[in-house]
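Quick start: read one record
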Amino acid sequence: MKDTAKGQQQHGQQEHIEPLPLFSTTDKNGRMTMLLPGRRVGRAAPLMPWLLTAAALWALTGSVPFGALLSMAPTPAISMLLGHPVTVGVAVVLLFVAIGATGGVYSRSIEQFGQTRVAGLFATLSAAGGLAAVAGVLLLWTLTSDLARPFDLEAIATSPTIPPELGAVIGACFALWAAIALLRLPGSIAHARRRQADIERLRMEGLSCTGTLTAVNFTNRWLFNFPIFTVEVSYTVDGAPRVVSAHMRTSADRVPLVGSQMIVLTDDRGTTHVELDLFNGAVFERDVTKYAPSDG
């Protein structure tokens, strides 16, 4: 049996290391979860200001195409204002700012929850939610400014100009997209927090063993540009050899070779977590193009 304190010391040394490769004995693809040493289980509250800011930027940006191009401005004067070259130029600038803010939401979600699935849902909610909100506001404003005008979806096909009904349909699509992300988010956050809590508990109370990477099998799949593998890690507990299988996601230049030393954390509940021991015997594939995604 290995000394747990020794394992904790090794993890403390790795607090600021590159998080890839990422391993999971339970999940794969975007559900794989990490918790950098020294960090606590993630919380949604710190992300809310960033989420609302990004959504507001998307709403401001979306007001121009919805109001000027899709006829959802309540008056001709506002339509002309939203279609003015200066306003369009400002909207283009805001678009890049909104994209940057959404990237910030994504990266901070990764920092909090260590999971690309949760981060993607937060980013989707910020963009789709902002665009749906501005579409709803403009549509309501347009309809209440002219109560005599009927709302008829057939105008999409019969109107000689672009009717606000088309903007309403597009806005409804963004609203549906945002609603799906919002409905999926609580369960995804709960899943990520459970995985992080398991990792935190294993680091504090679990048994730390030295393992060896004995198999690395490429699945011919990528998550974004990150190749996906299945691996096997051998280790010994109380003199008995054991093998644990795991999924691995990494970058093309950080693919560990068979024989690399691993850290295996386990407990009497059967929960297991594995990490690459970067300070003792980690060797990476030298050919960085071997697992890079093809351009075709």
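Confidence is low (pLDDT under 50) at residues 1-17.
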